[in-house]
Amino acid sequence: MNFKIRRAAKEDCKDISRMIMELAVYEKMPDQVKISHEELERDGFCQNPFFECLVAEVPEEHKSNEGFTIIGYALYFYTYSTWKGRAVYVEDLYVMPEFRGNGIGTGLLSKAAEIGKKKQCVRLQLSVLNWNTPSRDFYAGKGAQDLTVTEGWHTIRFDGQNLDKLANEAPKD
Amino acid sequence: MDFSIRAANLDDCKDIARMIMVSGHVRAHLETDGFSKNPFFHGIIAEVPEQHRTREGHTKIGYALYFYSYSSWKGRSIYMEDLYVMPEFRGKGVGKALMSKVAQLALAAGCHQLNFTVLDWNKPSMDFYLSQGCFDVTSSLGYHCMRCEGEALEHLAQL
């Protein structure tokens, strides 16, 4: 199948937002999506962007059933390890179901890895749900290690009222 | 015990490197990566007055390193990469103060989450964090941390 991977432009944010919701539905947590294309436009295309994004595009003749030509995306940002240095974190990787099996997911992930490599990143990291076997197999096939299983790493989070409470306890300057 | 928390600067890199090394790992290029035009991380330092300095004469006795991240569901977030207090200064609220400062900086920047990772066998740390009101995303939601590096990453970048 003919497809192109390119850097997202501000105008792509509506399509990216649409696909973020599709991915959340797939992950069985659609009620968790609180941001829209407006936050993506503000945070991804400012002076010091919080993330970068790649989109996968198909020609008009291959558009989706609903008429979309932007049919996949990878949203990522740069992170840091005090042990190993610069890294890339792929927050989202998604291809619309009707376009899977054509190497588009691999294309998006590889492009993110290539971009990271140009910035001297030595790691690419991401999270995957334990029940998501197709994705776990996909990443294992690319040589990714499951650090939760092999080393016992858990992601811990403060949000909502717990984050507010923690912040209120900070020492006064 | 009297201590202060402040933003790290270029001159703190030697002390940050010292404290990273104590935990047994080789440090990355802190000066270039943290203190140039588009830094990959930011740092805060915990300092004690001269009269409380360590036997070796150090007054910088703890640090936290963090960077901005993003959730496609919730927006701006902060990731705390390191939180460390020298053993002789623990149990005095320094770790809590460092973490609270990161939380305060998170809110000031419009972030909705503060994330970090902990090893599941590290019971003292896990108990400390849970007592402060966080939740274990891996245990409760099932997210696993995945990593690609070395030859696998090289191969992926060339596909």
UniProtKB/TrEMBL annotation, chain A:
Family label: Belongs to the acetyltransferase family.
Organism: Amphilophus citrinellus (Midas cichlid)
CDD domains the UniProt entry points to: NAT_SF
Keywords tagged on the record: Acyltransferase, Transferase
Name of the protein: Spermidine/spermine N1-acetyltransferase family member 2b
KW Transferase (keyword) present: yes
GO MF annotations, alphabetized: N-acetyltransferase activity
Taxonomy, superkingdom: Eukaryota
Keyword field contains Acyltransferase: yes
Residue ranges of domain N-acetyltransferase in the record: 3-173
GO terms under biological process: polyamine metabolic process
From TrEMBL, chain B:
SUPFAM superfamilies named in the record: Acyl-CoA N-acyltransferases (Nat)
InterPro entries: Acyl_CoA_acyltransferase, Diverse_Substrate_AcTransf, GNAT_dom
Keyword Membrane annotated: no
Keywords: Acyltransferase, Transferase
Domain N-acetyltransferase intervals: 3-159
GO molecular function: N-acetyltransferase activity
UniProt xrefs under Pfam families: Acetyltransf_1
Bilayer-crossing regions: none
Family listed: Belongs to the acetyltransferase family.
Name recorded for this polypeptide: Spermidine/spermine N1-acetyltransferase family member 2
Organism per entry: Amphilophus citrinellus (Midas cichlid)
